[in-house]
């Protein structure tokens, strides 16, 4: 038994924890996505083709996971993390609140005031249930659930 | 986000923000303890509280061990898991800049210590610099060779960087290998120079300031040799792409900063100060 273990260790890899991961067969479910629409989730659709032997790969060859997802978005002009201009609906009044897109039912928003009456950010927890109003400038926000219906906790 | 084609169901399954929230890892704690061991065993050994240096070498080994495993995790997170988005890379670059600034301030304090005595040698030193009876090294021998090697490493580094950006694997590998070798040879020559030195770190303020400053620089060179070796391996392993190679960028920045540092050190401590 000992000699068998020794043989395995020597013939394969000596770092056993890594070797178990490396030797497990990788399941490939969906092919590599070439555009955002083909991404099927945090899975094999976000694994690139890899480098050609003997070359320095490009990021499109090599990037995986979230890094690749971000890149696919950038190629289509989409900010996948919703950081640059997340709020683009509504006008901030009680009748027409700013709609804050959320995948989890709430989102923290730092209200900076109205145009011409800016103030330092006051943080509000904006939910989908009722409008949140900045107590300094009176600007109104409301969460807008944009995730899939079955993900909603409401 | 205005999703054009992708379903919200898919988007909701992915991480919503670009930041990398690292998972639980033993390495920060493990590295801290092994560094404490190293510091303690080094101090106790060099002050003669221990009859041997086995513990020092054991502690050194454990530090290298934890570094290796921590770096392995980071390489997996960046190259294989894709956790390093633009925001993460920007954060790491900024963090490294702050690290370099704090390192430079450490060197500033050692220059201050050196010049404090060198500019006003007091009567105990014989009112001269190097102090009376001290024999400084010649700046024209090994130190000059070391200076030339460091300047050459700047050249090979830029060679490697441009080859990397232009997707030339062979020359990238050569560039990183030459730079690694120049660092190793530098450290070796510095070791020779130390062993041929006529004074030690315990010989007057001159010896203390000289060996503190050049020794700190020498330790950085050892670290740089390791970083460059790691970069060489990562190029060999297809980890770096032509546009995304934060590890290489930080190594290059470090090399150039320490090269400049050495030039000042050479001019002030070896040339002007001898």
How far is it from the N-terminal to the C-terminal residue of chain B, by CA?
65 Å
Shape of chain B: globular
Q: Stretches of chain A where pLDDT falls below 50 for ≥5 residues? A: none
Please, what is the CATH homologous superfamily of the largest domain in chain B? Cytochrome c oxidase, subunit III, four-helix bundle
The oligomeric state of the chains shown is heterodimer
Top-tier CATH class of the largest domain in chain B: Mainly Alpha
User: What gyration radius of chain B follows from the Cα positions, in whole Å?
Assistant: 23 Å
How would you describe the overall organization of this protein?
The complex is a heterodimer of chains A (154) and B (274). Chain A has two domains: 75 residues, no CATH class; 56 residues, HSP40/DNAj peptide-binding domain (Sandwich). Chain A is an alpha+beta fold and 154 residues long. The longest helix of chain A has 11 residues. Chain A has a three-stranded mixed beta sheet with strand order 1-5-4, with no helix packed on it. A two-stranded antiparallel ribbon of chain A has the order 2-3. Chain A has four helices and five strands, in the order ααααβββββ. Chain B has 274 residues and is mainly α. Chain B has two domains: 60 residues, Helix Hairpins, CATH 1.10.287.70; 187 residues, Cytochrome c oxidase, subunit III, four-helix bundle (Four Helix Bundle (Hemerythrin (Met), subunit A), Up-down Bundle), CATH 1.20.120.80. Chain B is built from eight helices and no strands. In chain B, helix 5 packs antiparallel against helix 6, helix 5 packs antiparallel against helix 8 and helix 7 runs antiparallel to helix 8. The chains are: A alpha+beta (154), B mainly alpha (274). Chains A and B meet through helix 3 and helix 4 of A and helix 1 and helix 3 of B.
